[in-house]
Amino acid sequence: MLGILKNNVPRDILRNRNIYLLMALLIAIGMYIASTLASVTYSTKAVCEENYITSNYQDGQFSLRKPLAEPAEDRLQQKGYTTERIFSFDREMENGSILRFF
Questions:
Q1: Which of 38, 40, 85, 42 lies closest to 66 in space, CA to CA?
Q2: Rounded to whole angstroms, how far apart are CA atoms 49 and 44?
Q3: Based on the structure, what is the number of domains in the chain?
């Protein structure tokens, strides 16, 4: 029984070597794609975390009905808060969406 397998296995490998090579190539390409996607995901996450504070100006944002008076703004800055004046108004469009102007 083992003699039959000893003769058939090398013959089967030689006969189907193109298929086995293509399967190995396909596995290698799949591993390359997976590692590339993992590295892109990691680097994108790192960049987003690094630039989150500088690019997200609305972090802790609040709005007032009237502009903040100078003495009140100075008191907030003395306590260590940073204030940034951002003026905007909204306009409702014909299709129901809202367009915000800064």
A1: 85
A2: 9
A3: 1
